[in-house]
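fold-stage: in
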Amino acid sequence: MHYQPMTEEDKRQMLVEIGVSSFNDLISKIPKSLRNPKMQIPEGLSEIEIQRLLKEFGSKNATSKDYLSFMGGGSYEHFIPAAVAQITGRQEFYTAYTPYQPEAAQGTLQAIYEFQSLITELTGLDISNASHYDGSTSMAEAALLALRHTDRTKILVARSVHPHYRQVLKTYLEGTHYEIEEFDFQPDKTFNRKDFSEKVKENVAGAIFQTPNFFGVVENLEGISEELHAQGALLIMVGHPLAMSVVKSPGEWGADVACGEGQPLGIPLQFGGPYLGYFSTTRALMRRIPGRLCGLTQDSDGKRAYVLTLQAREQHIRRERAASNICTNQALCALAACVYMTLLGKEGMREVGELNLDRANYLRQKISEIKGFTVDLKAPIFNEFVVKSQKTFAEIQKKLAPNKILPGIDLSIFYPQMENYFLICATETKTKEDLDHFVEALSQC
């Protein structure tokens, strides 16, 4: 807005219209203590003093660099090559914003296009968008796609899907005519197939599964897509992207939409965000993709050019037909994931996946040998697994704190019936010595 100066006559006329004689009369009912409050602001600091103060504040935080962390549950500690930060830190990427002008944003658009291509290859589906805010919003958008595409009112969700994701979905659908129905999991933490099948009705738009699920178990989804498709419903799969290098991809399971958290692909833990929600689907559903989509074409001179395409957002088409506009400059996070996957390549991605399998299964076996701890050794897992203890998680946590060990996540927070159960994660960042040290410390609890 341009600056619009007011003359004294303008001010007088405004006060007359309001019905007061002066500005002081206008604020006369506001307590004097609030009109000119005395701000208890200390004197300014020099740059070196500010740096020292910030370092002091920062030292109060406990990070996975200071502690031996076995926490997972949606945010994972993975090794990130130094080149990822070096490339994403370049100013042409670091300061770039929404690429609405393709002639001025070819670099950003190409990075988006490459990210989309890699995600489709990873998930085994036809087309990917340029990402969402995080895994939970990506899943919620997938549910909306299914509801709108089928013109139905109910979405099924496994209770083994991340609790935070299910909460976000409920928030999305609050106040709408849409309905969420959950189906339970079994004692071995896999979804209850009987409960699921009984709830697949004609009004169901789709069903959401997570594999590996929140408990770390790799689900067997044999026949699920066929069962849903027979009813005209869609299969939505949430998954850990690195797990797709060693287990079946969503495309191989017959999924219609694959979505989830891309943080494991070269993005640090960083207090829970910003993260990266990946989203891919089939060609049949591509015109319902929410967010931003980059395509490859040719300019008027026949040269390769990148553009935003199939822009099904409210500023491009009729609002009632528009998909969600849930995207911002997530391109920086997408670029980090793109660089990470490119540096590792297919073999590298598979090696990281195999290391996660190895570490988690080794640790699970060792913990099962400790008295007072129970672990299911039969369930197929990726890098997380559930442990039941005779002691409370709070006791274990307190006992291990002096050793600077974070033992995992208390599952009773999300599932009250799972008292004394906790979730442990072991990725490629943990050495055999780390795992043995944890097992030794746990045996003393």
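fold-stage: in (second)
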Amino acid sequence: MIVADAAHEIFALQTDDSDQWMIYAPLAGKLSLVNKAAARETLLYAQNPQSSLESPIIRELIDSGYFEDEALPEIDVFEEFDYRPVEVTLFPTEQCNLRCTYCYARAAAEGVKLSWEIAKAAIEFVFDNAKDQKSGVSLLFHGGGEPTQGWPLIERALDFADHLSEQFNIPCTKALASNGVFSSAQAAVIAKRFDGITLSWDGPLQDQQRPLRNGKGSLSTLQRNCRILSDSGSIGIHLRTTCTQSILHTLPQLPKLALELVPNLKSLQIEAAWASGRCEETACPIASEFVRYFLEAFHIAKQLKLGLTYSGFQVNGIRTRFCGVSSPGFTVLSNGIISACYEVKDAHDPRSEWAHFGAFDPNTQKFVFDPQKINHLRTFDVRHYDYCKDCFCKWHCAGDCIAKTVPTGIPSEHKGSPRCEINRSLTKAFLLESLQSQQTERTSQI
């Protein structure tokens, strides 16, 4: 890593070729392939800007805009409480009909179900905010279990949201995250009433990693429901795969299999399993192997014109915050607790100390929030993480998932995680590929 001065950042990254280096200025949006000597000269300039000012290489970097940084948003200082979300995620139930080997929530057959009283108040709250802000509303269903196990509440919530949408002329988008194991009748309703759905699917190892409660496979039901959803042509379908060490070798097969499952698939997301919940008993993938197989899968997906993503890197554009935790997101758990993070649903989870920032009050029929916690959540910004200060990847991973890297909720205690190796390796690979693509394009135009 090379930092030119306090106002600019420029990095020298060695490629697999010992004499080829990338000069990368993320905030200026500049990237070049140079030899070792040029990389060394850039280092000297970074250490002492006056020493190499007359160098042709340094002059070219300056003239090309390598030190003209894109303006970043100011780090907000929140002195007053202001929390008016227009998006709500409801957890209809903690119950689940599967026994996934890596479930972070340890979902079971029994569990708390969200009451209509709480769901109704949450929907009213975001619509009231939308009226004031003259914006639309987003209604999502997720779960510390399978949302469709709370089907009556989902239908009632959809009806109520449609009613408010029509009454106040406020558009409402609806989305669902599901394991895909529900009845064909439910699939038909989902296709008609939802704008988008994200389905969990583990390819060839679906039945082994995502069995039903009775131990039987879940793939056949998922396949049937994917056909119903896909044939409707009216709902955006996304697939999400959790990669354990066991499934690693199948990643290159996934793009083709995913399109066979859902021909009009919007995207495929692959995430490395993380040790929490039942996943503590499941082998998480080795970082270097995940990178190798993911890249192979990515290039196959590209040929098939399928978008393949992973949350830990975003090459196009700059971001300072990883996810909605910093907003924070208005996620209503099945017990009425408000959590900033989908993964933190249990009160005994140490992360709940910072992630749970409110709750439904049955006496007032309203939600009560903790302003101090909300303002603290807003500080989860990569610019507050000393560990990330000298990392070329920080504007692309944004410090990564808070629940994994800062479980204490104290930004200064960010020490990275095994995902850092994945994030850096993938980002570096895509930067190099971008350069090579540009060179190929220039050559073809000659």
